[in-house]
Amino acid sequence: MENVPLKGGRGSASMVQKCKLCARENSIDILRDTLTPYNAGDNETFKTMVQFECRGLEPIDFQPQAGFAAEGAETGTPFPEVNLLEKDWTDYDEKANESVGIYEVTHRFIKC
Question: A Pfam family for this UniProt protein (predicted)?
Fold first, then answer.
């Protein structure tokens, strides 16, 4: 994850956007120490996977794409390039001799 410097040397954030109307700089920063994996045991439940520090912006939607990884629950087989753009992903775990997948990805944002 890359960071973008904030105006005036006030640190950095994961995303910085300038308002076209008032020229104010707004930002969202991923709090890296809050990143938590979603495991097979979490299936069909909502789980906090990441927290953001938001200044002037509020996330309203999430479109998963590339950058995800998975691991076979029973075999430990790594799947380093999981693309969730279609909200579904399938592959084959040769160690387990069976299909594996992630289906119907959903999300929600909770304000703290």
Answer: CXXC_Zn-b_euk
pTM surpassing 0.70? yes
Q: For the CA atoms of the chain, what is the radius of gyration?
A: 18
- Integer angstrom CA distances of residue 34 from 31, 46, 50, 92, 102: 6, 15, 5, 30, 22
Q: Express each pLDDT in 38-65 by its tens digit.
A: 998 999 999 999 999 999 999 999 999 8
Asked if 43 and 73 sit in the same domain, the reply is: no
| Matching residue, tokens 């950058």 | 67
Residue with token string 């075999």: 75
Residue 94 belongs to domain spanning: 62-112
